[in-house]
């Protein structure tokens, strides 16, 4: 292959990142105006820990985010039947119908023993559902209680422990 190249320099793979194998699947609640808050690139951090994100619709069948149409690949049935290990709830639009749908998904996740990762304004919503107090850029809710997240490194450590 090198001999066929018109360049005299060997091809470089600089910047090539091998994807991390997916070890678990979590639902990502799709909300209008999704906001991951101060923790930065949460999706990238989760993928780096081997988490596959499956978007879950809160009303519409799809959502346009940043010019990209995101189609739902998971449903509430996936939570009930154990195909998801957790739920990621970003902040977002505060319309009543959307909040009711998000609250319903968080309640369903809690009832089925799933870990819920709430970010930005979704922390207060999840805290209300779990019956605890939490005020932070992010928080992880589970049957064991709540863990407040103030930086992305904490998220990676917690997610690595989810089996």
What fraction of residues sit in β-strands? 15-25%
- Structural class category: alpha/beta
Strand order of the largest sheet: 2-1-5-6-7-8
**Largest sheet data:** 6 strands, mixed
Shape: globular
Low-confidence segments: none
What is the helix fraction of residues, given as a range?
Answer: 25-40%
Indicate the mean pLDDT.
84
**Number of distinct beta strands:** 8
Distance between the termini: 43 Å
Number of helices: 5
Order of helix and strand elements from N to C terminus? EHEEEHEHEHEEH
What value does the Rg take, in angstroms? 18 Å
Question: How does this structure look, described?
Answer:
There is one protein chain. The protein is globular, with a radius of gyration of 18 Å. With 163 residues, the chain is of the alpha/beta class. Helix 1 links the parallel strand 1 (24-29) and strand 2 (51-56). The chain has helices at residues 42-48, 76-80, 96-111, 122-130, 152-160; strands at 24-29, 51-56, 62-65, 68-71, 86-89, 115-119, 138-142, 145-149. The mean pLDDT is 84. The longest helix is centred in the middle third of the chain and has 16 residues, at 96-111. The strands form two sheets. It has a six-stranded mixed β-sheet, with helices on both faces. A two-stranded antiparallel sheet has the order 3-4. It has five helices and eight strands, in the order βαβββαβαβαββα. Helix content is 28%, strand content 24%. Helix 3 (96-111) crosses helix 4 (122-130).
What topology emerges from the helices and strands here?
Layout: E1 24-29, H1 42-48, E2 51-56, E3 62-65, E4 68-71, H2 76-80, E5 86-89, H3 96-111, E6 115-119, H4 122-130, E7 138-142, E8 145-149, H5 152-160
Parallel strand pairs: 1-2, 1-5, 5-6
Antiparallel strand pairs: 3-4, 6-7, 7-8
């Amino acid at each position: 292959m090198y001999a066929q190249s018109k360049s005299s320099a060997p091809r470089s793979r600089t910047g090539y990142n091998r994807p991390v194998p997916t070890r678990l699947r979590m639902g990502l609640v799709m909300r209008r105006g999704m906001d991951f808050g101060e923790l930065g690139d949460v999706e990238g951090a989760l993928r780096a820990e081997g988490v596959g994100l499956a978007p879950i619709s809160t009303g519409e069948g799809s959502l346009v985010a940043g010019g990209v149409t995101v189609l739902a690949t998971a449903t509430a049935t996936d939570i009930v039947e154990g195909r998801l290990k957790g739920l990621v709830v970003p902040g977002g639009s505060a319309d009543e119908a959307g909040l009711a749908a998000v609250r319903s998904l968080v309640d369903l996740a809690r009832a089925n023993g799933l870990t819920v990762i709430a970010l930005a304004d979704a922390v207060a919503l999840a805290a209300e559902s779990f019956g605890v107090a939490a005020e932070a850029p992010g928080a992880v809710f589970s049957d064991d209680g709540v863990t407040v997240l103030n930086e992305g490194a904490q998220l990676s450590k917690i997610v690595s422990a989810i089996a």
